[in-house]
Structures are given as structure tokens and as C-alpha cells.
Write a structure and sequence with these properties.
It is a single chain. By secondary structure, this protein is α/β, with parallel strands linked by helices. The chain has 2 domains: 2-225, 3-Layer(aba) Sandwich (Rossmann fold), CATH 3.40.50; 232-297, Alpha-Beta Plaits. The protein contains 11 helices and 14 strands. The chain has helices at 42-49, 71-77, 93-103, 109-122, 138-150, 168-183, 196-202, 220-228, 242-249, 273-286, 301-312, and strands at residues 2-13, 16-27, 31-35, 57-62, 65-66, 78-81, 156-160, 188-192, 205-210, 213-218, 232-237, 254-260, 265-270, 291-297. The strands form 3 sheets. Strands 6-7-8-3-9-10 form a 6-stranded mixed β-sheet, sandwiched between helices. The protein has a 4-stranded antiparallel β-sheet with strand order 2-1-4-5, with helices on one face. Strands 12-13-11-14 form a 4-stranded antiparallel β-sheet, covered by helices on one side. Helix 6 links the parallel strand 7 and strand 8 (188-192). Helix 3 packs across helix 4.
Length: 314
């Protein structure tokens, strides 16, 4: 079952096309990342799906509701963190949360209080609940905006740069929260981010966008494999001898061997790292090699992302 499904989603601003016939499917409980440079169309996509702006063409279904026929139901089913979240700075953190919780339909005062306490405690804001938001740092305001997005327990979360402006500890708290919401509460999360660390750690799949179009959709591992080609195993030894190098080169799945005498290591390109590594290690040990480390070299998601984006540039 898809929590989010879009077909031909398009948004034009006069003659400029911000999003160009985008198709998208996100499963229930999935953390799905939207990646791309500034101006790629990520935020515009999110705002269309959340019924904050209307598509020029195309349609989408969110939690079973059509964005054209049931925009109010869509808004009730989602929680959204926009790129520049607005909070009432003259109100306290608790007053902000109470106002929005009631607006989201939590009419019982005690229920609102309990839920607000739960989310503020999770993000270490409960002890600042009676302080005016104007006194908060940028990071604290970001955390408060996230608690506002989840206070009504929405089935789907749209988060635009949720860790922007946060220190490493606070960013980890937000990642832990997203992971918990996805794994334990089966919430669907659409994450727009420039922080590839967030996408790599959290997303089951990502879509890389550029100039309003989808370049590719795959898992982080799948993207790495697409740009890296054959895997490379790095084996560092106490000393390198011609016999050790020869032993590595004669293994069936070995495609290429590069020797680095400076750090006594071999960079061995293979057809399949899982099946080739044990055989290579065995052969090197039999050749009297003393192995210090064995590492599978693969590109980061950032490297895969940059390579794919550069391919799209004219």
C-alpha cells in the first residue's frame, strides 16, 4: 500500500517549470528522501503534496485522499515542517503547541497537555515550555517546529531540512525521532534534505531531482553500486612481497590489482566482493602474508549524488 502516490505532478510559475511531470510512490512506514541542488523542485513538490499550493498539472493521493478532491483531509493526515517554519514568538513554547494542537483537532485539554508534554520531553524542551519562543536559539526553534508537526500523530510527515541549524547532538535526536516514528509507529516520512548523512542513515530509498525532474530513484546502496562499478577490496599487510601480489592476482574473480608500496596495501578490483574476499584472504595467508586490515571500498552517498548531478549539467 502506498501512503503517497503522485502522477505527472507539475508546477509552473509563469513560464518557469519548477516541477516537471513527477511520478512518485512511497510505501507506508517508509522514510523516503528527496535530494537535489537548490532550485531542483524539492520544496515545491513537498508543498504540492501537502496541499499548500495547487499543481498546474497532475495529481496525487495522500493517505488515500486526493489532493484535488479532499485537500482538507490531506492536511489533517499530514504533519509538515517547512523550510522556514513560522512560530508565534511572543507566545511561550507551550502556548504555541497548545494553539496548534487544538487547531489540529485535539479538543480535550488534558489530552493536549499530555501529548505536548510527551513530545517536548522527547526533544528536551519541556523545561523551557514557559519561555517565550523569541528567546530560543535557531536550533531550539527548529526542534519546536518539529514537535508542532508531530503533535497530532499524523500518518505522514513532510519534513523540509529538519536538521538545519541544529548542533550534532540535536540533529541526532531528530534522526532518532524519525527512525522511531518510521520503525515503531509505521509513520511515512518524506524528507527533503541537503544533509546527505541524514538520507544515508534514515532513507530506504531516495529520489535525486534536478531542474524539476527525477534523475533516479533507488536505495542509497543501489546508488553507490550504480556509480562504483566493480567493487574494490583494500588489503593492508605488514609487508608486501612479490609472492603475495602474485597470489592475489591469480584468484578467479580478481579483475585488477594495484600495489601501494608506501602503506603495504593492495587495491583489488573484483567481480563480487562477498564471494571473492574469503578466497583472496586465504590465498594471501598461504603466501605468508600478514594481514593488518581488510576493507571494502565503496563511494559514499555524497559521491554518488555529486556524480549523478554533474552528469545532468549541460
Amino acid at each position: 500500500m502506498f501512503s503517497v502516490e503522485a502522477e505527472g505532478l507539475t508546477r509552473k510559475f509563469n513560464t518557469f517549470t519548477a516541477v516537471d511531470h513527477l511520478n512518485l510512490q512511497i510505501s507506508e512506514g517508509e522514510v523516503f528522501g528527496l535530494l537535489g541542488p537548490n532550485g531542483a523542485g524539492k520544496t515545491t513538490t513537498l508543498r504540492m503534496l501537502a496541499c499548500l499550493i495547487t499543481p498546474t498539472e497532475g495529481t496525487a493521493t495522500i493517505a488515500g485522499y486526493d489532493i484535488h478532491k479532499d485537500p482538507l483531509k490531506v492536511r489533517q493526515s499530514v504533519g509538515i515542517l517547512t523550510e522556514n517554519p513560522s512560530l508565534y514568538e511572543r507566545l511561550t513554547a507551550f502556548e504555541n503547541m497548545d494553539f496548534f494542537a487544538e487547531a489540529y483537532g485535539i479538543s480535550n485539554k488534558q489530552e493536549r497537555h499530555d501529548r505536548i508534554k510527551e513530545v517536548l520531553e522527547f526533544l528536551n524542551l519541556w523545561n523551557r515550555r514557559n519561555d517565550k519562543v523569541a528567546t530560543f536559539s535557531k536550533g531550539m526553534k527548529q526542534k519546536l517546529a518539529i514537535t508542532r508537526a508531530i503533535v497530532h500523530k499524523p500518518a505522514i510527515l513532510f519534513l523540509d531540512e529538519p536538521t538545519a541549524g541544529l548542533d550534532p547532538e540535536s540533529a541526532k535526536e531528530i534522526r532518532d525521532l524519525m527512525e522511531s516514528l518510521s520503525q515503531h509507529e509505521k509513520r511515512t516520512i518524506l524528507l527533503c534534505t541537503h544533509h546527505l548523512e541524514d538520507a544515508e542513515k534514515l532513507c530506504q530509498r531516495v529520489m535525486i531531482m534536478n531542474k524539476g525532474k527525477c534523475i533516479i530513484v533507488d536505495s542509497p546502496d543501489g546508488l553507490r553500486e550504480k556509480i562504483s562499478g566493480q567493487p574494490t577490496i583494500q588489503i593492508t599487510l605488514k609487508t608486501l612481497t612479490p609472492n603475495i601480489v602474485a597470489a592475489a592476482k591469480t584468484q578467479n574473480q580478481v579483475v585488477d590489482v594495484k600495489v601501494n608500496q608506501q602503506d603495504s596495501s593492495l587495491m583489488i578490483k573484483v567481480e563480487n566482493a562477498t564471494s571473492a574476499t574469503p578466497e583472496i584472504v586465504r590465498a594471501i595467508v598461504e603466501a605468508q602474508g600478514k594481514i593488518l586490515s581488510v576493507n571494502l571500498q565503496r563511494p559514499t552517498l555524497e559521491e554518488a549524488y555529486l556524480k549523478l548531478i554533474r552528469k545532468e549539467k549541460p
